[in-house]
Automatic annotation (TrEMBL):
Gene name of the record: fhuA_1
Source organism per UniProt: Methylorubrum suomiense
Membrane topology, record value: Multi-pass membrane protein
Name of the protein: Ferrichrome outer membrane transporter/phage receptor
Location in the cell: Cell outer membrane
Domain called TonB-dependent receptor-like beta-barrel: residue spans: 264-707
Pfam families documented for this protein: Plug (PF07715), TonB_dep_Rec_b-barrel (PF00593)
Length: 736
């Protein structure tokens, strides 16, 4: 397996990741009309005023995504509470990346979508188009923190469902533990990607894109009401086709994506939306560069002769909502996902003494993952005296089956004098026996949002049962492991002034760990808890919102090497993440937006040890060391400016952003540091309606990423990853 595939596991959580792998191994032209309304709390305390989206889509815990969207700002998201609760009332830090922001930045991956979000680290593994991989508040979300339409997106080993950003209405980042509503997860939080839904207003969009590295892509997004349905049915179909090379020799980044959706709304109280998807990806099998003596080189580790990561995935599901009365709502969300991978690669293992030849190995894996998720919710509104309650109760279920086969072999040496990539035939090694995994998870949860005068108390509690089995082909019997856990959240918010809300909360999380210690006892789940306090401000009568949050997270029962048996592990490690975040998101005028984000993070081991690199018979205590690869301070800013109609430059939008990360340590021993990195992005767009109204809907747009072509890298757990060079994508867009 290439070093770049050992990617998603820093040394501090390497064993945990292996365990979790085994375990879970608006565009404006597309919106319907908007109307002005006042958002208030039930007690009558006014929060703020502003536009709210009224497009007929489900906007509650049914997974319909945020509402109150203007530019880059959103006032409501169902992710944090599974209800239509204003973000300002949520006692945790939440950021919504809206469709307009995704459009302006022409985001190509979910990882890129988080590039300007407080608390997120999205460049940990450099350029790697194979996975959506990122950290929030120092914790990995790759396997246990990605959700789609409110349902957990299960991944295992190298099989992770990919999310096409063009198919999203928004991405919501809930920072901090979320197990009290969503079940097993990461202490860092979750990212919930909301799929585009049908609208009851006709619309359409086509795009043609081209860029460096022979990138060519076509996008389309069409929909509206079904003719003859009397406004009860609507459809939407979204798709892309991309052919692209990359800066890696012989490596491609091709994608085919089609996503049909259909909504049936027989009455104002009932909505049923079907969501489908088919996607194919062809990607480089190995995006890594050879590492030598803990440093990255410019020697590409893969080879065009064998670098195929092929993935096919399909999804079908629905979101159902029925209102029995204004105070009683039932929802059911369900989805089936199937993902199949075929993964072949070459990697450089070492160089000869003369540094003229590189010794190489090969790998070949085939994996299949099938998953079913179901969430039932009932929401009720009632009063007990002066206290107004929003009650939510639910039962959810998740199941997956996963199987994998792998084989490893040797490849001809690479001539370092001629760098004869792709000029020698390389065959994939034969596959070994198949390994099987399956998991069932059942969760029961209850939440009360109680409002008394200016106080809002949010209480959530959940109990989970997780049943896991593992089986190897040709080996009799199975290895079952069962876990159960109770998690929750308690938060208090106070409406200090219109739009100004201080809050404090406590939340817990858990994730099972598959395996056994030296005494053959099953590992107990890793658990986490967080204390968070902050202030949210939504300036009245504007679309400007700001958040400041401080947090302290401790994750316990992290796997570590057993000091009494260096060949085994014990669940006794601990990690602590402390810091604060500041974020501002503003829409000053149509097409003029700004995001600012700053994060300070102190991420350290409380209890951990690692084998001595110079003596494999002893351990080094690294308690107190910083975890590697995660920067202590990050700052990002992105803004756009649309010249007003009276300007000589009417129709022109200019924008750009900067992403700054301070240094971090490159390994768990903290013996060397990653450099600080500053990257710049740019946007130039023009709407041709400014020339003549008959050109309404035509737009040209150019996006540049890392426009100064900064050569940068990041090292984690002693292995280093190279970032992407300057990239430019031009788009011709027509919307109607």
């Amino acid at each position: 397996m290439p070093a770049s595939t050992r990617h998603h596991a820093p040394a501090h959580l390497a064993a945990l990741l292996v365990a979790s792998t085994a375990l879970t191994s608006p565009a404006l032209a597309q919106q319907a009309s908007t109307s002005l309304e006042t958002i208030t709390v039930e007690s009558g305390a006014k929060l703020t005023e502003g536009p709210a989206l009224g497009n007929g889509a489900v906007t509650s815990g049914g997974g319909g995504g945020p509402s109150g969207v203007v530019g880059y700002t959103a006032q409501i998201s169902p992710t944090a509470t599974k209800t239509n609760t204003p973000l300002i009332e949520t006692p945790q830090s939440v950021t919504v990346v809206t469709r307009e922001q995704l459009n302006d930045r022409n985001v190509q991956t979910v990882t890129e979508a988080l590039g300007y979000v407080a608390g997120a680290s999205s460049n940990v593994f450099g350029f790697d188009p194979r996975f959506d991989s990122f950290y929030v508040r120092g914790f990995d979300l790759t396997y246990n923190g990605i959700f789609r339409d409110g349902l957990r997106q299960i991944g295992s080993s190298l099989t992770l469902p990919r999310i096409e950003p063009y198919g999203l209405e928004a991405a919501t980042i809930l920072r901090g533990p979320a197990s009290g509503l969503f079940g097993l997860g990461s202490p860092g939080g979750i990212v919930d990607a909301t799929t585009k839904r049908p609208l009851f207003t006709p619309f359409g969009e086509v795009q043609f894109q081209g860029g460096n590295y022979n990138r060519f892509q076509g996008n389309f997004d069409l929909g509206g009401p079904v003719e003859g349905s009397d406004g009860t049915m609507a459809y939407r179909i979204t798709g892309i086709r991309r052919q692209a090379d990359t800066f890696l020799p012989g490596a491609i980044d091709d994608r085919t994506y089609i996503a049909p959706a259909f909504t049936w709304k027989p009455s104002a109280d009932t909505t049923l939306t079907f969501l489908g998807e088919y996607q194919e990806n062809k990607l480089p099998g190995n995006p890594a560069f050879f590492n030598e003596n803990g440093r990255i080189t410019r020697l590409y580790s893969g080879d065009p002769a064998l670098t195929d990561f092929k993935q096919r995935q399909g999804r079908i599901g629905y979101a159902f909502e029925h209102r029995f009365s204004p105070d009683l709502v039932f929802r059911q969300n369900a989805r089936y996902y199937g993902v199949a991978n075929s993964y072949a690669y070459v990697q450089i293992n070492s160089l000869n003494d003369a540094r003229t030849l590189a010794n190489r190995g090969t790998g070949f894996l085939k994996e299949q993952l099938n998953q079913v998720t179901l969430d039932n919710q009932i929401e009720a509104h009632l009063a007990t005296g002066p206290v107004q309650h929003t009650l939510l109760a639910g039962v959810d279920y998740a199941h997956y089956d996963f199987n994998t086969r792998s084989g490893f072999g040797v490849a001809p040496d690479l001539d370092l004098l001629t760098l004869n990539y792709g000029r020698q035939p390389i065959t994939a090694p034969p596959l070994g026996p198949r390994n099987f995994q399956s998991q069932d998870q059942v969760g029961v949860y209850l939440q009360d949002q109680a409002k008394l005068d200016r106080f809002i108390l949010t209480l959530s509690g959940r109990h989970d049962w997780v049943f896991q089995t593992n089986r190897a082909e040709g080996t009799p019997g199975t290895q079952p492991q069962d876990d159960r856990a109770f998690t929750g959240r308690a938060g208090l918010s106070y409406l200090l002034a219109p739009g100004l809300v201080p809050y404090a909360s406590y939340a817990t999380t858990f994730a099972p760990q598959i395996g056994f210690d030296a005494a053959k006892r099953a590992f107990k789940p890793t658990t986490g808890d967080q204390i968070e306090a902050g202030v949210k401000y939504l300036i009245p009568n504007t679309n400007i919102q700001a958040n400041v949050a401080g947090f302290d997270i401790v994750q316990s029962s992290v796997l570590r090497t057993d000091p009494n048996n260096l060949t085994a592990q014990i669940a006794s490690g601990a990690v602590r993440s402390r810091g604060f975040e500041m974020e501002l998101i503003a829409n000053f005028a149509p097409g003029t937006n700004l995001t600012l984000a700053y994060t300070h993070l102190d991420l350290r081991y409380l209890r951990q040890s690692t084998p001595d690199p110079n003596d494999s018979t002893r351990l080094i205590d690294i308690s107190g060391n910083a975890l590697s690869g995660i920067p202590g301070d990050t700052f990002s800013a992105f803004g756009t400016y649309l010249f007003p109609p009276a300007s000589p430059l009417a129709g022109l939008t200019i924008g750009g952003g900067t992403r700054f990360t301070t240094h971090s340590f490159g390994n768990e021993l903290n013996t060397f540091r990653n450099p600080t990195v500053t990257l710049f992005d740019a946007l130039v767009a023009y709407d041709f309606a400014a020339i003549d109204p008959k050109y309404k809907g035509f737009r040209a747009q150019i996006n540049g990423y890392n426009v100064l072509d900064r050569n940068y890298y990041n090292c984690q757990a002693g292995y280093c990853y190279r970032g992407a060079p300057a990239t430019v994508i031009g788009s011709l867009i027509y919307r109607w």
